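Quick one, tokens below:
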């Protein structure tokens, strides 16, 4: 996968307003790809809308399955108590899934089996709904697929569905850190927790890269962790030369991760988790929309 820039939007099918806005960016050629959440209440309506618009889009986006193990409705019958609360609503956290990766025993094995079942159901739902000719790509909400127990369950689910050989791209959530630490006007403008996130995902990426290399699957480079939550144009323009230099030198596909959609307050539904209740409605999503619409790279 040679060097080129892909502006990517996460969270299609979170709500109708969110999804319409993302498709507008695709139609204008500003957004090159987007990820589809499989397990929200608005999923069916948003997918019907995507199919309705698909043939008329001036620029058709690449589509990814955005596995969601944080919130939304469970699509499988295995409502593991670590993953779900009563009513079949997923109520989990990145930290909990990470912890279970390193806790051996029956609970680990049971969770891995149930994750495989849930991921299989999520992949199957979106894959069967993809427009004709769309390639199979996979990533996840909050990058949970980078966690060992989740990654193994995801790979098992793809094998179960006989889709591993058809999978074109799996996101490797590994972002170079130095451009953000050495660019004047960027350092100290993002939360310290984002640096921690960057480093943890970098640590986890080694295992993922080795597995994907064994499958001869091309790996890209991600930009969107340190500035997660506010990918604004001003700071993007500052750090872009250093990010692009690395991608060009290594001849790598660069995925610029943004969240340009926004959920209207009246679209709020019970399956949104606590963190998403804030993120989906955040005005920073308007900032990211403007950054994509007026992008300079």
């Amino acid at each position: 996968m040679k060097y080129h820039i892909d502006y990517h939007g996460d969270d299609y099918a979170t709500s109708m307003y969110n999804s319409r806005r993302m498709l507008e960016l695709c139609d204008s050629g500003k957004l090159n790809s987007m990820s589809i959440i499989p397990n929200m209440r608005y999923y069916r309506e948003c997918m019907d809308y995507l199919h309705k618009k698909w043939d008329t889009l001036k620029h058709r986006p690449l589509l990814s399955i955005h596995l969601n193990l944080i919130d939304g409705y469970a699509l499988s019958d295995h409502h593991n108590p670590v993953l779900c609360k009563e009513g079949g609503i997923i109520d989990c956290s990145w930290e909990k899934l990470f912890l279970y990766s390193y806790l051996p025993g029956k609970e680990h094995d049971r969770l891995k089996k149930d994750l495989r079942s849930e991921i299989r159901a999520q992949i199957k739902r979106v894959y069967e709904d993809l427009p004709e000719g769309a390639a199979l790509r996979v990533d996840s909400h909050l990058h949970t697929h980078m966690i060992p127990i989740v990654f193994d369950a995801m790979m098992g689910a793809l094998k179960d569905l006989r889709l591993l050989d058809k999978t074109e791209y799996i996101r490797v959530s590994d972002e170079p850190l130095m451009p953000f630490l050495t660019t004047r006007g960027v350092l100290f403008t993002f939360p310290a927790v984002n640096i921690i996130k960057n480093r943890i995902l970098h640590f986890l990426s080694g295992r993922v890269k080795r597995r994907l290399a064994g499958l001869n699957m091309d790996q890209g480079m991600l930009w969107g962790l340190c500035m997660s939550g506010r990918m604004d144009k001003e700071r993007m323009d500052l750090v872009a030369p250093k990010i692009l230099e690395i991608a060009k030198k290594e001849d790598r596909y660069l995925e610029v991760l943004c969240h340009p959609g926004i959920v209207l307050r009246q679209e709020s539904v019970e399956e949104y988790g606590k963190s998403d209740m804030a993120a989906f409605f955040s005005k920073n999503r308007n900032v990211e929309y403007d950054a994509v619409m007026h992008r300079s790279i």
